[in-house]
Every structure is written in C-alpha cells, then in structure tokens.
Amino acid sequence: MTTFANAKEAIDLIEDVQQKLDRALDLIRPIAAQDTEPDVGGLILAEVLEQGGSVTKDELYQIAASRGMDRRGLGGFFRQSGKTSLYVVPGDRVLLTPYGVERAQRYASRQKSYEYEPSDRAYSKVAEPSFAEDWDSDEDSVYDGA
C-alpha cells in the first residue's frame, strides 16, 4: 500500500511541477517572440543612416517598401511616444533625428558579427629576442637562487 501512496504522491508532484513550467513558458514566450521578430524600423533607419542620414521622401518610401512596410506605417517614425526618429525638413527631404541615429546605430551594431582575430605574433617575435638574450646574463644570475 505504501508504493501506491508513493506513486500517487510522485504523480501529484510531477503534475504540480508541470503546471509551474507551463506558467513559466507562458511568461517567457512573448519575450522570446519579440527577440525573434525583425526590427524593420531599425533596419529602415539604418539604411537612411547609410545614405548619409538624409533621404528624399520618395527614397524613404522605396526603402520602406523594400522591407515590406507600407508608407502609411512610416508615421510612427515622426511621432513615436515623444521620441521622433525622422524629421521633415523644408523641401522634399527627411532627416534622422539624434534619437533616430541612435536607434539606427543600435540596430546596425546588433547585426554585426564580431569575430575573434588572433593577435599578430610579429610583435612578440620582435620583443622576445632581446629579453631572451638577457636571460642568462650575469646581472640576472643574482635572481636565479631566489
């Protein structure tokens, strides 16, 4: 009878843990989805930055269209909760604001992959001989017994 009680206890414990894991997954999934969704806005701003930080309205529309954004979606760049990314200057030009530049740079830095580059060993080849020649000198021999 004790094995049945132990098995029931184990099943209850597993079900409890499973419910807690399901709740944790429900909390994490939206965050994970945000990380995998492309930042189209950042991409568009980065392209404007690559073109000197200023483009014509038509060029902006073309950039947005090439990234799957309708030109009506561009309004958010001009009024984004108090932080505007783009500013319309007199004439036909659109200019990145300081916030827009910052967002474009953040996007660009996330897209770069940093690879490890081993150091140039030529520097050590230059430095080692002079040190090695002095290794057995009479001056250094006083430290050999220490």
Please characterize this protein's 3D structure.
About 60% of the residues lie in helices and about 10% in strands. The chain has helices at about 1-35, 40-50, 55-65, 75-80, 100-110, 120-135, 140; strands at about 55, 85-90, 95. Strand 2 (about 85-90) and strand 3 (about 95) form a beta hairpin. The longest helix has about 35 residues, at about 1-35. About 15% of the residues are buried. The mean pLDDT is about 75.
Return Rg in Å. 31 Å
CATH homologous superfamily assignment of the largest domain:
Winged helix-like DNA-binding domain superfamily/Winged helix DNA-binding domain
- Average pLDDT works out at 76
Helical content (DSSP H or I, runs of 4+) = 55-70%
In short:
The protein is mainly α.
Secondary structure blueprint with pairings:
Layout: H1 2-36, H2 40-50, E1 54-56, H3 57-66, H4 75-78, E2 86-89, E3 93-96, H5 98-111, H6 122-134, H7 138-141
Antiparallel strand pairs: 1-3, 2-3
List keywords for this structure.
single chain, 146 residues, mainly alpha, Arc Repressor Mutant, subunit A, 2 domains, three-stranded antiparallel β-sheet, 7 helices, 3 strands, 8% strand
